[in-house]
Amino acid sequence: MPDESSRRSVQRFGDFELLAKLGQGGMSSVFKARHPRTGQIVALKIASHHVINDRQLSRRFELEFDLAHPLDHPNLVKVIETGKHAKIPYLVMEFIDGPSLAQHLQIIGRLSESDALAIVLPIAEVLMYLHKKQIVHRDIKPGNILLAPSGVPKLADLGLVKNLDSLSRLTRSNLGLGTMQFASPEQFEDAKSVDARSDVYSLAATLYLMLT
């Protein structure tokens, strides 16, 4: 009986049943999850344990929800709600039943120009949407572009987002953030000072990888 109870506790997190692990980063892990009462399938982004004891990282996790929840764009993964379970914060997000662009490229290899543009142009449109709202993503890369079964690309993960209108001091001056292969040089010199042009650089680097 204890073993059965232990298995149940591992499979549940808050109000959700964990179905499969989708990925893991420095600050969080993402799971495919189901609400047992409604049957809704979602992506559950659960903060890593070290985030709980780091005030700055915890605030960044909260900021992702504050900025992302009001956003609504067909090419942006929707952030639905937030909560805490055993003091661990989590985000409930739209579940995309398809691979990331990074996974797709590993299987397919180089894309044709038309296939690459079918992905990059919608992502460029969602970046225009974010930039008009004074939001810089700061982590555009193939791993953060998800491909829905319909073929629609969706931009995910606003964990490094910067609000140009905010007085937030979560990113220190002269601190670099992002992914080496795709972030602009200035983002590694001083991520706090970058603007929309840094996202454009990262999208161009992503396009280059798709074509080559």
User: Into which percent range does the helicity of residues fall?
Assistant: 25-40%
Low-pLDDT sequence parts: 1-10, 164-176
Q: What spatial order of strands do you see in the largest sheet? A: 1-2-3-4-6-5
Mean of residue pLDDT values: 83
Strand content: 15-25%
| Strand count | 10
> Number of DSSP helices?
7
* Gyration radius, in Å: 18 Å
Quote the distance from N terminus to C terminus: 55 Å
SS-based structural class? alpha+beta
Report the order of strands and helices: HEEEEHHEEHHEEEEHH
Largest sheet: 6 strands, antiparallel
**How would the global form be characterised?**
globular
Please tell me about this protein's structure.
The structure is a single chain. This protein is 36% helix and 23% strand. It is α+β, with helices and mostly antiparallel strands and 212 residues long. Strands 1-2-3-4-6-5 form a 6-stranded antiparallel beta sheet. A two-stranded antiparallel ribbon has the order 7-10. Helix 5 runs antiparallel to helix 7. The protein is globular and about 45 Å long. The protein starts with a helix and ends with a helix. Mean pLDDT is 83; it is low at 1-10 and 164-176.
